[in-house]
Amino acid sequence: MSPSPRNRVRAFSRTMQVLLAAGLAAALATSLSACSSFNRATESMADALTLYKPEVVQGNFVSKEQVNALQPGMTRLQVRDILGTPLLASVFHDDRWDYVFSMRRQGVEPQNFRLTLFFAGDTLSRFEGDDMPSETEFVERLSRKRDIKVPTLEATEAQLERFPASSASPVSAGAEASANAVPSGNYPPLEAPR
Length: 194
Fold this sequence. Notes:
- This protein is of the alpha+beta class.
- The chain is 41% helix and 18% strand.
- Among the domains are: 12-49; 56-142, 2-Layer Sandwich (Beta-lactamase Inhibitory Protein, Chain:B, domain 1), CATH 3.30.1450.10.
- It contains 6 helices and 4 strands, in the order αβααβββααα.
- It has a 4-stranded antiparallel β-sheet with strand order 1-2-3-4, with no helix packed on it.
């Protein structure tokens, strides 16, 4: 006896469900193995390829020289002239200004600096904070190591002796030459005729 058409459809449907489940299982196994091999490949390339991370300086840079210029008794305006506008000036703490800045560079731990100033009315009473870098130290921290040879800009006596001194000064000789110069060529007028 041959199976009925209804039974054949059910058998085909079950076969398709089994094949679909097997296909999904194979696809899942393949995708998981691809992820693990991708991770292994990227881990080995991590030393060769590094992402670019920009150098970031955030906040108000305050140098050691600026901190040394502060004196108790200065007015808020004098302090602002030296340090600039504070990063934090709270309405609720009118007697306190905070100057904060941070430097983030690739391959270097982030560096955070803080300076807090306390006022009594309009005059500076005290200040406290981290040991600030000098302006030179700040620039050195930002700049990359480069071998730059800066030429000397002063001539020695021996170098100056190689050039004889002229009797006429260069300014008067240049003025004489420009007064005697005759323009060569025909130039159009600068303004249109009226």
